[in-house]
Design brief:
Elements (H helix, E strand, L loop, with lengths): L2 H9 L13 E6 L5 E7 L9 E7 L10 H9 L3 E5 L9 E2 L2 E2 L7 H17 L4 E11 L1 H12 L3 E7 L12 H10 L4 E5 L3 H17 L5 E5 L7 H6 L3 H12 L19
Parallel strand pairs: 3-4, 3-7, 7-8, 8-9, 9-10
Antiparallel strand pairs: 1-2, 2-4, 5-6
Helix pairs in contact: 2-8, 4-5, 5-6
Length: about 270
């Protein structure tokens, strides 16, 4: 084969290459109540003026952002700007003004929504990130937080949950009511559960609400034969991250396409 043609094929003119490994950029951002949240972001290098949709991973209670490092890289290589971060009271975000944070004295849902809002605010300052197209991937506590946040933020276009609890300590919230609200809005949702009885009960209850509310067919519950909870599901089955990417592409949007450069759809004929 002609060397010039071979070079084009390898270089990506005729066949775009996969994104190479890139080290995440560390960042910190202050919440509106002055807590410092730490995280990491990966942003694909695209053509001029092209923006990447945003994938944000939210860890479980007593978890840490590093549980999602491999999944973050897979989303990045698929065309997403991908963020992992530590919720307040966890890992690098565990202290406030030099003191350990005691979450048992406050409503963690109310506080940690501020953490997620601050992270999105930071991403809005990145010129190559499209914060009008956000997907959330949450585990355990983080799954419920992702669902609840999606009900109040119109920029969230899809949610994946790992071992989503139906209820949680320190809160009167019920995940099923968030699913019901998002179903009415036709927001795509995918719920993964492990083998534990609590997971199966939560999946059954949430599916009941979704079946009542959702006519769009964009809600799925998958039970996995894995005896693990929340972020551990990814550790035991790393290929789940590829499933997330494919599912979002099918049900939410294609991360490789920039809606600003897509031809406008013609209005339906009367």
């Amino acid at each position: 084969m002609n060397k010039a043609i071979l070079s084009l094929l390898i270089g990506g003119v005729l066949a775009p290459p996969a994104l190479a490994f890139q080290k995440p950029t560390d960042f910190s951002v202050k919440t509106d109540d002055n807590y410092e949240i730490h995280g990491e972001i990966l942003i694909p290098k695209k053509a001029k003026d092209a923006k990447s949709p945003l994938a944000i991973f939210v860890h479980d209670a007593k978890g840490r952002r590093s549980q999602f490092s491999d999944a973050q890289m897979k989303f990045f290589k698929s065309g997403y700007a991908a963020v992992i971060f530590d919720l307040r009271g966890h890992n690098q975000s565990s202290k406030f003004e030099g003191r350990e944070i005691d979450l048992s004295k406050d409503d963690p849902w109310k506080l940690m929504r501020r953490d997620l809002s601050a992270v999105i605010g930071y991403c809005k300052e990145q010129k190559d990130v499209d914060t009008d197209r956000i997907v959330l991937i949450g585990a355990g506590f983080g799954a419920t937080l992702a669902l609840k946040f999606a009900t109040i933020d119109e920029t969230v276009k899809g949610v994946v949950c790992l071992s989503c609890p139906l209820s949680a300590p320190y809160s009167k919230d019920d995940s099923s009511k968030f699913v019901e609200k998002l179903s009415v809005k036709s927001i795509p949702m995918l719920l993964y559960t492990g083998k534990t009885d609590d997971d199966k009960k939560a999946a059954k209850d949430i599916k009941f609400y979704a079946d009542k509310a959702n006519a769009s067919g964009k809600f799925e519950v998958k039970n996995l034969p894995i005896d693990a909870k929340s972020g551990e599901l990814l550790a035991q089955k790393p290929s789940l991250a590829d499933e997330f990417v494919a599912w979002f592409k099918k049900n939410a949007f294609d991360p490789t396409k920039d809606p600003a450069k897509e031809p406008a759809k013609e209005p339906p004929k009367k």
